[in-house]
Amino acid sequence: MSLQVVRTLGSKPKAKARSFMLIRERDVERAIDHGERVYLLVVKENSSANVVLQEHNPIDDLLEVFGDVFPKELPAGLPPIRGIEHQIDLVPGSSLLNKAAYRCNPEETKELQRQIDELMERGYVHESISPCAVPVLLVPKKDGSWRVCVDSHAVNNITIKYRFPIPRLDDMLDELYGLICTFEESVQNIAKSETFWEATITSPITECLKKGGFEWGVAAKQAFELIKERLCIMALPDFTQPFEVEGDASGVGIGAKGEYLIQDGFLFKGNRLCVPKHPIRELLVREAHGGGLAGHFGVAKTLEMLKEHFLWPRMQKDVHNIVGKCVTCQVSKSTFKPGEYTPLPVPTRPWDDVSMDFIVALPRTQRGKDAIMVVVDRFSKMTHFVACHKTDDASNVADLYYREVVKLHGIPRTIVSPTHATGHSPFEVVYGINPYLPLDLIPSPKKELVHKDAEATLKAMMKLHEQVRDRIEAVNAAYKRKSSKNKKPRVFEVGDLVWVHLRKERFPSKRKNKLMPRAEGHYNIVG
């Protein structure tokens, strides 16, 4: 039923027109009897509160067509063997690696085993029979879960490097920019030198933008085809025919061959721009090191990138100074820089200062001992070797030290690391005489050390101790000169700013993972 019929049936004669359209039941019956077409509108209540109408996405159709390529869950097992199989080529003659697994706590061990079992069940990995082994470790994700990572540093060291490395994005953009500049210059030259019906060749193309909208007509298409015929940019030559290659040193193009060349007021050496002494040198170094797409490379990588495009004297020194002052690198790549060697104070008497160390990973004895505690007197170099367990804690070690060392020599003032030789036997330095040999048992005068005069014996011991101290000081001085040969003394004044290197053993909470800062600062020296 047409809209006009509905209005006619739904209204009364001489009545004011209504703002809504309704029809009575008998009017519908009358319209059906007269053969009119009737449309019925039914209002149905929808239980859903929010109905979102989504537009058709063509990507969904593409994913449906290639459903076997983009499954919701990956199929179990490895892909089938194909004609081309990739492999890692190692340096000929290099030995296969067999690295031990990293230590981890029980929770990390369970998580690592769970993920490996899951991968084996799905068929993504299988048990290896290769003698080559590299460790794996867990890296935390942002959501709190763990990611299994393979430490391939050792394998990379014996891997044959790619002869053609993957191009970097900034290099590709530089090449594209140079190509665009050359294209623009060529178009401008053609437009200046030739006319077509009293107009430039590119005029139909430029006219497309002057009318307020872009309209690509027949004239513009013909002009574009003519430009393609006149230009040979981005076209591969026909290698079956002889052709000529011309070099151009304009703009940032490839450049002509030569030692030095002045182009547009700039000095080039080959393909590299010569930069004069100007603050722009520092700007270029900072841009190559940490600007744009750079990732705060080291001195060698930054220098390599600069030498590819620029040239100036003492470039390496400038790069080293600027990279060394980079705050981001100081925080993320901080390393411990030892200063000059500072020897420990020389002891004044035997067993006043001792050193302690442990020898572990030894074969287990019948009593279960698998380690040796080594205690050395720093003055006389007398040594005690005490059998112990590798798992002994601090209380057990202290008990061993009291039972084996303190009962003989007393409690020392300090316990440090080993030092140098004294020039005398430890027994002689401690007791004043060397142990008797069979010939020494024959009664005979032994100069001043064999008589019974206590005062003379004391003077001889004091003289011997003085000689030992002089000997240790001389050895320390010689070692300091040798170890500090190429090191400059670092003297800090009050008010200087310094960085604090965060070592894992000293600051474990601040070095939980490799992405955390390795240094903090700056800190003022106050005294």
Please give the radius of gyration in angstroms.
Answer: 44 Å
Unreliable spans: 1-15, 194-198, 249-257, 436-442
Q: Helix/strand-derived class?
A: alpha+beta
Question: How many runs of DSSP E, i.e. beta strands?
Answer: 12
- Portion of residues in beta strands equals 5-15%
What does the largest sheet look like?
Answer: 4 strands, mixed
* Order of neighbouring strands in the sheet with most strands: 3-4-5-6
Mean pLDDT: 75
Helical fraction equals 25-40%
Describe this structure in words.
This protein has helices at 3-9, 25-33, 58-65, 106-122, 153-157, 169-193, 203-207, 218-230, 280-290, 299-309, 315-324, 327-332, 394-409, 426-431, 454-483; strands at 136-140, 146-150, 261-263, 266-269, 272-274, 310-311, 353-359, 371-377, 383-388, 414-416, 497-501, 519-524. It is α+β, with helices and mostly antiparallel strands. Among the domains are: 1-49, no CATH class; 353-481, no CATH class. The strands form 4 sheets. A 4-stranded mixed sheet has the order 3-4-5-6. Strands 9-8-7-10 form a 4-stranded mixed sheet, with helices on one face. It has a two-stranded antiparallel sheet with strand order 1-2. A hairpin with a 2-residue loop joins strand 4 and strand 5. It starts with a helix and ends with a strand.
Q: Main attributes?
A:
527 residues, alpha+beta, four-stranded mixed beta sheet, 15 helices, 12 strands, extended, disordered N terminus
Furnish the topology, listing elements before pairings:
Layout: H1 3-9, H2 25-33, H3 58-65, H4 106-122, E1 136-140, E2 146-150, H5 153-157, H6 169-193, H7 203-207, H8 218-230, E3 261-263, E4 266-269, E5 272-274, H9 280-290, H10 299-309, E6 310-311, H11 315-324, H12 327-332, E7 353-359, E8 371-377, E9 383-388, H13 394-409, E10 414-416, H14 426-431, H15 454-483, E11 497-501, E12 519-524
Parallel strand pairs: 5-6, 7-10
Antiparallel strand pairs: 1-2, 3-4, 4-5, 7-8, 8-9, 11-12
